[in-house]
Amino acid sequence: MFFWDFSLFSQDFTLFSQENDMFSRDFSLFSRDFDTFSQDKTAQSGSPYILFNTSPWLEHFFNPCSNNNYKNYLHLMLTQDEIKQLVANQAAQLVQNNMTVGIGSGSTVYWLIMELGKRVKKGLLFQAIPTSKKTAALAAQQNIPLAELNDVNAIDLTIDGADEIDPNLQMIKGGGGALLQEKMVAAASRELLILADHSKLVQHLGNFPLPLEVIPFGWKQVQREIRESYQVEAVLRMQDDQPFISDHGHYILDCPFQQIEHPDILTYELNGIPGVVDNGLFVNMADLALIGFPDGRTETMHK
Ligand code: 5RP
User: Which residues line ligand 1 (CB under 6 A)?
Assistant: First the structure.
């Protein structure tokens, strides 16, 4: 999808496409069409969404429709992937020269790596501790220098995604199966910043099935224990008709708890079951979360 940036210069308007500028135009001739638009407080320069007039001239290029709030104006919302890119680009600006940065895993972090790759090309010097083989491969492709967790004393900042975030910044992670390494890297970090689109915000954790990383030997014993203790049917994660194997050679059991009242107690209990390597509850680990919304707003949640 095109991503338009409407810049407002007094009575003159420039429509600019970030993908190509073939439609760039000086709108001064049409300024009378934009009277209402110019009073609109959301029409700030750099606003990441489109508001445009349905003048016959523009109809020639687009297929506009109206909405209730902005009669005759179209308000395009960001897709989920565009929101992920928005927060990732903002977070990438926090990385400074000589930092050691933990890089999470997943589709939000994909955009982070892309942006960091661009900054490395322009001269940014830092080292990254990847949280999965996928992240390591992607970062290497972008010429981001990598180090092992064992090679560093501490990590300045880790930036990662999440599957669910509650109002206390407790999280479920591990949708991509990288929870063990993600948790180890997060635990070694001075700061953990979580990136997410608004759909990850929940009142209570648990609707997203909680991933448990388990030793393949005797995994059914863990499944039985979960069933008996919590009346929850843990599902062995599959990939191409085979059990999914984590980067560290383990299986993943996805546990639909539905509503987790006490994440702090549950994480402790689950990790006490023989055969469980770790679980996807990240309790009291995140310092900050940067949340993106479809209208292009971002909000920061603090611990
Ligand atoms: C992988 C993770 C990811 O951070 C989590 O699944 C969110 O992924 P995405 O950014 O693709 O929504 O924990 O193990």
Answer: 104-108, 160-163, 173-179, 182
